[in-house]
């Protein structure tokens, strides 16, 4: 049996069509509450976990492979994971955003120490270290947009897609530093033990993703 970990929402919605291209469909109609979904391939099942838990399930072998955003994989660290395929789905970017009233570029120029609120501390630390900007990172688990509005932080690091969330909170995207899309993460031990089954599945997902890009 091959177990594939997905998260509800855009990862599941965007992965199902690729799986279908690879010849695998959900078996029967799901109510939306099941956490284990059988597929038309009796040797493949899907488990539904939180987006940030996908790499953890794969790392410890609770799933043989999974689909997770580059953001999630960076924060996890990638231990024990092989990342062979960028599916090009669930695309967005990681950016620094600040209130209109905060001159981010000027603050960076004069070497100010910045307070940055984010869920993505690893990616943010890397970015500011590479830029040589001193930051105090404040870890939050959601609604980062609020932090600068109440004086908790000067700026935030968040994912941006349409930009509507930032606009609604009168924040401006001042620096886009990472392109994000979802990748396949595979348990390294499973790849050795179940390689005969896993490799063709990974190859078919890769082919489906490429075909989607070309169309
Ligand atoms: O929602 P939950 O807490 O369960 O977990 P999650 O937020 O990690 O899961 P989910 O399904 O929301 O996101 C899964 C993956 O989709 C992420 O890990 C990203 O790789 C990817 N993705 C693509 C996004 C977005 N686009 C996105 N726009 N993830 C989050 N957002 C959020 C963003 O954080 C911000 O709050 O949407 C808001 C911005 O969107 P715009 O369109 O207003 O700019
Ligand atoms: Mg979300």
Structural class: alpha/beta
Strand/helix succession: EHEEHEHEHEHEHEHEHH
How many distinct domains? 2
Strand order of the largest sheet: 2-3-1-4-9-5-8-6-7
Instruction: Report how far apart the termini are.
Output: 32 Å
Ions, cofactors and other ligands present here are: phosphoribosyl ATP, magnesium ion
Oligomer: single chain
- What's the rounded overall pLDDT mean? 97
Unreliable stretches:
none
Write a structural description.
The chain has 215 residues and is α/β, with parallel strands linked by helices. It has two domains: 2-90 and 181-214, Periplasmic binding protein-like II (D-Maltodextrin-Binding Protein, domain 2, 3-Layer(aba) Sandwich), CATH 3.40.190; 92-179, Periplasmic binding protein-like II (D-Maltodextrin-Binding Protein, domain 2, 3-Layer(aba) Sandwich). 36% of the residues lie in helices and 33% in strands. The chain contains nine helices and nine strands. The chain has helices at residues 10-21, 54-59, 70-76, 104-109, 121-131, 146-149, 164-168, 188-193, 195-214; strands spanning 2-6, 36-38, 44-48, 65-69, 81-99, 114-118, 135-139, 155-160, 171-187. The protein has a nine-stranded mixed beta sheet with strand order 2-3-1-4-9-5-8-6-7, sandwiched between helices. Strand 6, helix 5 and strand 7 form a beta-alpha-beta unit. It is elongated, with a radius of gyration of 19 Å. 33% of the residues are buried. The mean pLDDT is 97. It binds phosphoribosyl ATP and magnesium ion (MG).
């Amino acid at each position: 049996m091959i177990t594939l970990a997905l998260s509800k929402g855009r990862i599941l919605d965007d992965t199902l069509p690729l799986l279908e291209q690879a010849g695998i469909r959900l078996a029967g109609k799901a109510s939306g509450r099941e956490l284990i979904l059988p597929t038309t391939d009796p040797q493949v099942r899907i488990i539904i976990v939180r987006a940030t838990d996908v790499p953890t399930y794969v790392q410890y072998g609770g799933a043989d492979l999974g689909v997770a955003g580059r953001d999630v994989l960076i924060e996890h660290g990638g231990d024990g994971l092989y990342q062979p395929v960028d599916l090009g789905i669930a695309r967005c970017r990681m950016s620094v955003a600040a209130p209109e009233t905060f001159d981010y570029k000027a603050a960076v120029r004069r070497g100010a120490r910045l307070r940055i609120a984010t869920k993505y501390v690893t990616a943010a630390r890397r970015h500011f270290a590479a830029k040589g900007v001193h930051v105090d990172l404040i870890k939050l688990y959601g609604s980062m947009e609020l932090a600068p509005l109440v004086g908790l932080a000067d700026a935030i690091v968040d994912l941006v897609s349409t930009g509507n969330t930032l606009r609604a909170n009168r924040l401006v995207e001042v620096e886009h530093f990472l392109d994000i899309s979802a990748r396949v993460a595979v348990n390294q031990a499973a790849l050795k033990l179940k390689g005969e089954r896993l490799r063709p599945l990974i190859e078919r997902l890769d082919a489906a993703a490429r075909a989607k890009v070309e169309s």
